[in-house]
Specification:
Number of helices: 10
Oligomer: single chain
Helix content: 10-25%
Shape: globular
Number of strands: 18
CATH superfamily: Ribonuclease Z/Hydroxyacylglutathione hydrolase-like
Length: 364
């Protein structure tokens, strides 16, 4: 190759890198019916999927009594792969499995059959025991059984068992793990510190819902000046351990609301410490989206704008206006997503895929 050709190649590469530096980080909160599946795509084309939703046939909406059956509903994995391909992703570079409940880990096998995955990340073995009173059919959907199948699948990939403080740098996105296997971060992140409000007035709560919730893998993702917090289904007391009495994580611009917006999480101290500007809520029509959580977010000093995956039917008075809800109807299901573009300066653009409603939030 001539010097001129080499110079042209280097110039094109430099231009491409410069252009990538100006592009936003994509965040796609995929609707998997109250499960979890969030896809990050960096400007360099690196992809990180957080959880894989339900196994095929589970978690799909059912028609109400008397309604005509609709077409077969796509599985969580089918929805994830469709969204990934639409975003230009043909391989998941990193799959983070936050814990082993069926709505988070159930779709892994189906996903691996549909798209290549590079590295799989988790907190280590399942810690949740199956009650002896369960039938074999019930036990098959419990973490102990699901983990056995997951471990077999993970053995075929590069596997990374993380602990708090571990860092994943991929492209221009930096992910710092702050919780894993029941342990939380002990060293403050940069920009953290200070006493957290509401610690003294917020009592502890019993961690119902299974041991695996307590052991959820959570992280702070940093892209330029922007920060995103995802604590999966981490429970109330573990949240408090991260921010009380001292805020170990610092503020985050975007909050993936814990536990699908269940009242088992999202304590007032956490919301005060994180001070989000935008909150994304992966609830189902009849799962999560609890009014007390939405009220806590509404009362927060940072006044976050909340976007929901589904209209919450159990407590309809708590819902946001329709433009901020991706799926209004429980049947037929359309599987609309909430999508965000996050710039390095902290600008956040959020789009409701159902109707194209868009808002942009500039850094303070």
């Amino acid at each position: 190759m001539t010097r001129i050709a080499l110079a042209a190649l280097f110039a094109a590469t430099a231009l491409s890198s410069a252009q990538a530096a100006e592009l936003p980080l994509k965040l796609l909160m995929i609707d998997v019916e109250g499960g979890a599946a969030t896809l990050f795509v960096t400007p360099e084309g690196k992809s990180i999927l957080v959880d894989a939703g339900w196994p095929a046939g589970a978690g799909v909406p059912r028609p109400p009594e008397g309604a005509q059956p609709g077409p077969p509903q796509p599985s969580s994995a089918e929805r994830i792969v469709a969204k990934a391909k639409a975003a230009g992703v043909t391989k998941i570079d990193y799959l983070i499995v936050t814990h082993y409940h069926m709505d988070h880990v159930g779709g892994v096998h189906d996903l691996l059959a549909r798209i290549p995955v590079g590295t799989i990340i988790d907190h280590g073995p399942s810690r949740e025991e199956t009650p002896a009173t369960m039938t074999p059919a019930q036990a098959a959907n419990m973490p102990a059984s699901l983990y056995a199948g997951y471990e077999t699948a993970a053995a075929k990939l590069h596997r990374w068992v993380v602990k708090p403080g571990d860092v994943l740098q991929t492209g221009s996105l930096r992910i710092t793990f702050v919780a894993a296997d029941g342990q939380v971060l002990k060293t403050r992140l940069r920009g953290a510190g200070g006493k957290t409000a509401f610690c003294d007035t917020t009592p502890d709560k019993d961690a119902i819902g299974g041991e695996e919730n307590v052991r959820s893998t959570g992280f702070v993702a940093t892209y330029g000046k922007a920060r995103i917090l995802d604590l999966a289904d981490l429970t109330w007391n573990q949240e408090k351990a991260l921010v009380c009495p001292t805020n170990m994580m610092g503020p985050s611009d975007v909050l993936i609301v814990s536990h699908h917006g269940s009242a088992l999480s999202s304590s007032p101290p956490l919301i005060a410490a994180v001070a989000p500007r935008v909150a994304l809520l992966a609830n189902g029509a009849r799962k999560g989206g609890d009014k007390v959580v939405l009220d806590t977010l509404k009362a927060a000093a940072s006044k976050p704008v909340v976007w929901q995956s589904h209209f919450a039917t159990r407590e309809p008075d708590g819902n946001r206006p329709a433009d901020y809800i991706a799926n209004l109807d429980t049947w037929p299901d359309a599987g609309h997503s909430i999508e965000a573009e996050i710039s390095k300066d902290g600008t956040i653009k959020v789009v409701n895929a159902r109707n194209g409603f868009t808002e942009t939030y500039r850094p303070n």
